[in-house]
Specification:
- The protein has a single domain, classed as Vaccinia Virus protein VP39 (Rossmann fold).
- Helix content is 34%, strand content 22%.
- The protein is built from nine helices and ten strands.
- Strand 4, helix 4 and strand 5 form a beta-alpha-beta unit.
- The radius of gyration is 18 Å and the shape is globular.
- The structure holds S-adenosylmethionine (SAM).
């Protein structure tokens, strides 16, 4: 599959190549409750992206869920506040949540348990690797990215997840008619998302507003990040882009 889509590399002073990621890998300790949930539930509901990418375990959603259903992929599910609510609200749809933050995944396992969800599975690791290496083209009904890390400092903008190569990768994995739903409370990142997605030939903006924003879709629940942003006076922007079958023909020069 595409070798470089969605990833970028930089050379450090020793001349070795390291990949720029959209996250910082931290060693976070799980609370007692999270550890308990992890020990009980991870093998039933979770997989490591590295194991899927290496081929140690298959990427096979119909086998994992035990049925063939529309498939939503959420990137960076955090503690899974909206993930669990959206999965509960759409039992006919299967949901994959990809996250690197282990306590967040553990928290989501607890939510799965509490709500008795059967249509949600978790993947621990980098969503870019999963998309690039294992998710077949045209296989996703929806990709959700809610409140991705904003990397507000200018010198860190290159770490932002939503970049042209990444959006091209996501668009290729969506089925025609499938949607990419983005939300952020950082005005600069929102403008970057709108520009990058508008520049992707396989996507079209579903918004009818002149500025291209979409009012918060009824299905997206408010999260902790969102409440904090609103309390701090930042506006939240939603963007919903649809995958088209083939790029619109360009007018001749
Ligand atoms: C600011 S949090 C938002 C969490 C959640 N979406 C919400 O709205 O509450 C962004 C999350 O994205 C995760 N993340 C960033 N890049 C990622 C990647 N490439 N693959 C998987 N998760 C990623 C981070 O670990 C972090 O938990």
């Amino acid at each position: 599959m595409d070798q470089q889509a969605g990833a970028s590399t930089a050379s450090d002073e020793a001349g070795t190549h390291r990949r720029i990621t959209s996250f910082v890998q931290q060693r976070n300790r799980l609370t007692e409750g999270q550890t308990h949930a992890w020990d009980r539930l991870w093998t039933a509901f979770g997989l490591d992206v590295a194991d899927v990418v290496s081929g140690l375990v298959p990427y096979d959603p119909p086998a994992w869920f035990g049925r063939r259903a529309p498939l939503v992929l959420e990137i960076g599910s955090g503690t899974g506040e909206s993930t669990a609510l959206q999965a509960a609200a759409a039992p006919e749809v299967d949901h994959l949540a990809v996250e690197v933050f282990e306590p967040g995944l553990a928290q989501l396992l607890m939510r799965i348990d509490e709500a008795g969800l059967t249509n949600l599975r978790l993947l621990r690791g980098d969503a870019v690797d999963l998309l690039r290496e294992r998710v077949p083209p045209g296989s996703l009904t929806e990709v959700r990215i809610f409140f991705p890390d904003p990397w507000p400092k200018r010198r860190h903008h290159k770490r932002r997840l939503v970049q042209p190569a990444f959006v091209t990768l996501v668009a290729s994995r969506l089925a025609p008619g499938g949607v990419l739903h983005l939300a952020t409370d950082w005005a600069h990142y929102a403008a970057q998302m709108r520009a990058v997605c508008s520049g992707e030939p396989l996507l079209e903006n579903t918004s009818t507003a002149a500025d291209g924003w979409t009012p918060q879709p009824a299905g997206r629940p408010e999260t902790k990040f969102e409440r904090r942003a609103l309390a701090e006076g930042r506006d939240v922007r939603d963007l919903v882009f649809r995958r088209i079958s083939a790029p619109h023909p360009q007018p001749p020069n």
